[in-house]
Amino acid sequence: MIRKNPRGDLPVVHESAFVDPTAILCGRVIVAENVFIGPYAVIRADETDAQGGIEPIHIGAHSNIQDGVVIHSKSGAAVTIGCHTSVAHRAIVHGPCKVGDRVFIGFNSVLFNCTVGEGCVVRHNAVVDGCNLPAGFYVPSTQRIGPGTDLSAIPKVTASASEFSEDVAQTNVRLVQGYRRIANEL
């Protein structure tokens, strides 16, 4: 469902993207080409800052927002999801937040008030809160990364983790094409 926010902003979805009919996109949301937005995802840009402004939630080209993902932002702050990035089932991305290109965010993970650099992998049930994660870092499942985390203790992304991330992204690009092909069938 595509709908306005109280300020009157409508999402802008590229014609090549696929948004599942059960997903909700509300407000100043920008969806680039070949993006897959799965069932029951909620992407909501409706809170304003003190002056009534809202920065967009931007989903980059060839990315996928999987089933049950919630993307929202506090007080109109920006959220950017890079290109070729996967946000897996039931993850929460709450702005202000910037996620780089070719990033994998695992099931049930939470990102808040952070930057996740290019090529990072944040595995399942992890939390990245209030910090800047440089490019190429690997956050193991169930780990919490915050402002006091010693980043020298965080491993770098391995070749196999990077290949897994790329495989997920490519699989979802194929889903976009398949779902768009059958869109008018019952």
From TrEMBL:
Recorded GO molecular functions are: transferase activity
Q: Which UniProt keywords apply?
A: Transferase
- UniProt keyword Transferase, yes or no: yes
InterPro entries, sorted:
CA_gamma_LbH, Gamma-CA, Hexapep, Trimer_LpxA-like_sf
* SUPFAM superfamilies, per the entry: Trimeric LpxA-like enzymes
Which Pfam family, just one, is annotated for this protein? Answer: Hexapep
Kindly indicate whether the keyword Nucleus belongs to this entry.
Answer: no
Q: To which protein family does this belong?
A: Belongs to the gamma-class carbonic anhydrase family.
What name does UniProt use for this protein? Carbonic anhydrase or acetyltransferase, isoleucine patch superfamily
Which lineage do the record's taxonomy fields give for this organism?
A: Bacteria, Pseudomonadati, Pseudomonadota, Betaproteobacteria, Burkholderiales
